[in-house]
Amino acid sequence: MGQSDTTSSPPAGHGGLKREVGLAGLLWASVGAIIGSGWLFGAQKAAVAAGPAALLSWGIGAVAIILLALVHAELGGLFPVAGGTARYPHYAFGGFAGMSFGWFTWLQAATIAPIEVQAMINYAQHWSWADGFLNKDLTLTATGFVVAAVLMGVFVAINFLGVRLLAHTNSAATVWKVAIPVLTIFALGITGFNGSNFTVHGFAPDGAKGVLAAISSSGVIFALLGFEQAIQWAGESRNPRKDIPRAVIGSVVIGTIIYVMLQVVFIGALPPETVAGGWTKLTYPGISGPFAGLATLIGLGWLATILFIDAVVSPAGTGLVYITSSSRVTYGLSRNGYAPRALQYTDRNSVPWLGLLIAWIAGVICFLPFPSWQRLVGFITSAVVLMYAGAPLAFGVLRKRLPGMERSYNLRGGTVVSPIAFVVASLVIYWAGWDTLWRLGLAIVIGYLLLGGYSAYAASKGVPNAPRMDFRAGQWLPVYLIGMGIVSWQGSFGVGAQGNLPLWWDIGVVVVFSLVVYYWALSVALPAEDIERNIRGVEVVDASGH
């Protein structure tokens, strides 16, 4: 059974979210999230892992993200609401699955802002005044921790000024963020291009395993993440049914073109002696800031200066966007009844202020167990893709149960694309490796304790908005999570993996297992009337802007 027929509006005295963001604001929100610290590190990390075959890693990663983006584009047009990615599984599978994917969504949004702060501090080491912020192993010192907390506070403070100013601020920052990578592509491409770098140690020195590992563990998928920001802001879009699909697909295309070209010029611009010992031993002065160090090495000091400045601007812009999204996802979780109603309070600028404060606290806590950029990348990649995996499932259910719904964007071949997108998401999660996935499992358990505990409390107290768990419709989810963990443990990716499933056999197992889960989920999903009840219970209020 689904949620109750009625869901109360936000607490009295507050007007809710305002629809005042246009296509440009949505597009730049997603592009700004995609072009963050990932471009500053991704090409170098991928080249070390896969050599020139890193180009294949970017290609596979782009296909994976585009498949997921196409599914999200249709769903975003159907349900133009704040924190959309946290809600789709709720509509199709009810409380238990909705709560779970809501936690996955919040987890990724809350942890990306801290990683961008880490990148800012890392690159700031170029200046002498930042010498005391990091230890030799690039982890935060006590002073660095305070600085990181203050930077998170700045992101929160800007968000309190309202979404309209935020959209304008982010659009201006994104122009810079896109212009600098494009300038880097042209500058490195025309200064010197060593085509022999693509073959000197073979195109794929570590074979298929290197190509696949680079997708998750070297920042390829992490760099391409962010298209969902337009969906998270959907509750504040002026023309959501048309603008959301355009913003989602457009941002992925722009990001993919930029990242592939950056990988090409990075490999080609390297002096041959830097790769003489093989790609795993790639080294040169300043490699901790890969593009800036390379620019200095080949005599482009002016470009290096610009890149050091951009290393502050780009991560700051991305962190700002994700702080916004984190607060909107918190708002959405409360609207669905998984978190206290107080999280729906908005201030005079229509900002969900309590969600912003929670985002700041969570970000600061992240600096404690993950005090460096590299330690957070694999974890966040897995959390984000796990969040994305809920959309193909909800897409399949809605196409099957409610085929007559008006769709502003109708994905051609959606019944085929959807299961493929779910399989691809599962593969990306698997390639992250066992050492990452067991940590993600702990975070999932924490989420169940927090959200599950509140939901049980709300149900026992008769809170009007308390969702029913609908365990029957979500019975497949524990099997999927535990099954992916077992396959990862027995596979060959990541530290601690047992290696009992050799390459290709492991991929076959993940593909078959994912398809079984996909069609199992479709078969036990809520009936049409309960899905419609869930949609009405949340969307009627949001559609009115209150």
Itemize the secondary structure elements and their pairings.
Elements: H1 23-34, H2 38-50, H3 54-78, H4 88-93, H5 95-124, H6 142-159, H7 163-191, H8 207-217, H9 220-224, H10 229-232, H11 240-269, H12 290-297, H13 301-335, H14 353-366, H15 373-388, H16 390-401, H17 414-431, H18 434-461, H19 476-490, H20 505-524, H21 528-543
Helix pairs in contact: 1-7, 1-11, 1-13, 2-8, 2-11, 3-8, 3-11, 3-17, 5-6, 5-13, 5-14, 5-15, 5-18, 6-13, 6-14, 7-11, 7-13, 12-13, 13-14, 15-17, 15-18, 16-17, 17-19, 17-20, 18-19, 19-20
Brief sketch in words of this structure:
The chain has 21 helices and no strands. It is mainly alpha-helical and 546 residues long.
Features:
disordered C terminus; disordered N terminus; mainly alpha
Describe the sheet with the most strands: none
Give the rounded overall mean pLDDT. Answer: 82
Distance between the termini: 26 Å
Classify the beta-strand content into a percent band. Answer: under 5%
Give the count of helical stretches. Answer: 21
Quaternary structure type: single chain
Order of helices and strands: HHHHHHHHHHHHHHHHHHHHH
Radius of gyration: 22 Å
Shape: globular
Helix percent band: 55-70%
Q: Runs with pLDDT <50, length 5+? A: 1-15, 540-546
Q: How many beta-strand elements?
A: 0
Structural class: mainly alpha
Question: How would you describe the overall organization of this protein?
Answer:
This protein has 546 residues and is mainly α. The chain has 21 helices and no strands. Helix 2 crosses helix 11. It is globular and about 65 Å long. It starts with 22 loop residues before the first helix and ends with a helix.
